[in-house]
């Protein structure tokens, strides 16, 4: 069973989500929902690291604010992926993520 979505031959952006790199399939639905938020300009998935499997459900964790938005970690039972959300209104975006219970 594949744990991530494959990268297209052409780097492209779909629904505000930049798909230049591999995206963990378990967190992709979260990213699609986040992309629909009016305060979000872009979502840039980053590096994927392995973690010890613990059988947890996929979730997002807020790390910190950045100059261009916020950094999240997408966590699954076996991997962690950095996710950068580009926004002009960090506080409103974080509030919306908490309201939708997307972040822990």
TrEMBL record:
It comes from the Bacteria. Pfam families: DUF2103. InterPro entries: DUF2103_metal-binding. This is Metal-binding protein.
